[in-house]
Specification:
Layout lengths: L12 E4 L12 H14 L2 E4 L11 H15 L5 E4 L11 H13 L3 E4 L3 H4 L3 H15 L2 E6 L12 H8 L4 E7 L3 H14 L4 E4 L13 E4 L6 H13 L3 H16 L7 H11 L19 H14 L2
Helix pairs in contact: 1-2, 1-8, 3-5, 6-7, 8-9, 9-11, 10-11
Length: about 300
């Protein structure tokens, strides 16, 4: 059943920050910091060390430096950050490593987003919820993350009963849902409204960014392309301005193009788009992340011009 829309709701927007690179494969820290600043200035909360920031491809030192650079850039302003403890298929869940990653984020003054891992997603539902309880007791409030395997092989989308258990973890203040399907998210919204109305259902559905009209907030990779335009779209919804719909449609066109298979290559699309906007120096992507062809650039340029032409 299609849920009702929720007009004039204030949308909470978290934007996953792209980690830009130079042509020789080094991190472009100036470009990163400028992008973090643009995002918070637009009114969105930056989310660093997420999938968009190649969190599972960069090393621990780079993840730590990302936290440091974000904090220096933002001063006292808030941000969230991925807490990632990598493992391999068949590994047991390492509570200590996850807690250490979350505490590192907390030490930077940010809220941890607990990334999934092979060990975590292999747990049966009761032990999975107990694992999240353990993290919350040790590291304080956090955001959970359901990550579809089209993004990363260690991800999983929980069944609704397991998600209900997650709502019972008081330290878990919200969860990003990245199945790229509407129906599971609608079911999560209904469950949230029933069991814990203050819980944030953060859509990660870059193929249906209008999920916000049904009560989701968001933590999106797509918003890294244009945090200013996402903030404008959100303001239109709050104000009951019909311009919300055309701007949302144009942004969704960008999402469909950028998030086509192979899905992880959207990060290169983001770099191409930000380079077209003159906001990073070049469109290099992480050397272990799939790339898009240069023939995408004229399409992105056309989409950009259409977005910028909107009133």
């Amino acid at each position: 059943m299609l849920p009702p829309t929720r007009p004039r709701r204030r949308i909470r927007g978290y934007s996953a920050i792209l980690l830009p690179f130079t042509p020789d494969g080094a991190v472009d820290w100036d470009g990163f910091c400028a992008h973090v600043a643009r995002t918070t200035d637009a009114g969105l909360t930056p989310a660093v060390n997420m999938d968009t920031g190649y969190v599972n491809l960069i090393d621990a030192a780079t993840r730590r430096e990302t936290l440091r650079q974000a904090r220096v850039t933002l001063g006292a302003r808030p941000f969230v950050a991925g807490a990632y403890a990598g493992d391999r298929p068949g590994d047991a869940w390492d509570a200590g490593a996850v807690i250490a990653a979350a505490e590192e984020v907390r030490a930077a003054g940010a809220t941890p987003v607990i990334f999934q891992s092979y060990g975590l997603t292999a747990l049966p539902p009761d032990r999975l919820i107990a694992a999240y309880e353990t993290v919350g007791q040790a590291a304080g409030p956090f955001i959970a993350f359901e990550l579809g395997t089209m993004f990363a092989p260690f991800g999983a989308i929980y069944d609704l009963e397991t998600y209900a258990g997650l709502l019972g973890v008081q330290a878990c203040i919200g969860a990003k849902h990245s199945s790229l399907h509407r129906a599971p998210e609608w079911a999560r919204l209904a469950l949230r409204d029933q069991l814990r109305p203050d819980f944030m259902v953060l859509t990660g559905n870059d193929l249906a960014i209008d999920m916000v009209i049904y009560g989701s907030d968001y933590l999106l990779g797509l918003s890294t392309f244009a945090p200013d335009l996402f903030a404008r779209r959100d303001r239109y919804w709050l104000e009951g301005d019909d311009r919300f719909y055309e701007l949302n449609d144009r942004l969704q066109y960008l999402g469909f193009f950028a998030f086509r298979a192979p899905t992880p290559a959207y990060k290169h699309s983001a770099a191409q788009f930000l380079a077209l906007r003159g906001q990073i120096a070049c469109d290099a992507t992480h050397p272990r992340s799939p790339a898009r062809p240069a023939s995408d650039i004229p399409v992105l340029q056309d989409i950009l011009e259409g977005l910028l032409a909107l009133p």
